[in-house]
Design a protein that fits this description.
Elements: E1 2-6, H1 7-13, H2 15-23, H3 25-43, E2 46-51, E3 62-66, E4 69-73, H4 80-90, E5 95-98, H5 102-110, E6 114-116, H6 118-128, H7 141-144, H8 161-172
Parallel strand pairs: 1-2, 1-5, 2-4, 5-6
Antiparallel strand pairs: 3-4
Helix pairs in contact: 1-2, 2-3, 4-5
Length: 173
């Protein structure tokens, strides 16, 4: 899976990353990139983060890597939104777009890809930087043995195909 992140959108939605950004813009980016790199390492997903460079950036699009995370700075005069749309339109990959910007999310969904809000993705980032699944506290099977559950199973109604596909993608994150 290839995750494309609207960098400044995520930083400005997150309380923790905004704290780092208050020190300097570079600190905010660095904090985000550290989290994304750790997430990529643990989950095995490709991650690309796109930052705005349209106001004071380079005249050309700049690409770099921070560990395993690909970093793109949009060129002078072009917003990160347009770069993300171009990436999604040009490639045929299994994309998940992370942005709270409705225009970007709608564009990704219209192309058949999934989109997740910045805060929802941030929760998953924080969960992934915790202990590995193998280190999780084991359930004592002796306590549950012999109990009969009255909990109903299954969903009361069937979700639409689009919603089911979205649920599958979100579980993989």
């Amino acid at each position: 899976m290839h995750i494309i992140v609207d960098g400044y959108n995520l930083i400005r939605q997150s309380i923790a990353l905004r704290q780092a950004e208050r020190q300097s813009l570079e600190e905010g980016r660095k904090a985000l990139l550290l989290m994304l790199n750790e997430y990529s390492r643990k989950k095995g997903h490709r991650v690309t983060v796109v930052f705005d460079g349209w106001e004071g950036g380079s005249p050309c699009e700049e690409r770099d890597y921070f560990g395993e995370t690909a970093v793109i700075y949009s060129p002078l005069g072009e917003k990160a939104d347009e770069v993300i749309k171009r990436i999604v339109a040009d490639r045929n990959d299994n994309f998940v777009v992370v942005s709270s910007d409705r225009a970007i999310a709608s564009f990704a969904i219209s192309r058949g890809y999934s989109a997740i809000a910045a805060l929802d993705f941030e929760k998953r980032l924080w969960l992934s930087t915790g202990p590995d699944d193998a280190e999780a506290v084991p359930v004592n099977e002796d306590e549950t043995e012999g109990r009969i559950s009255t909990k109903k199973r299954g969903v009361a109604h069937r979700l639409s195909r689009t919603k089911r596909r979205e649920q599958i993608v979100l579980r993989k994150l």
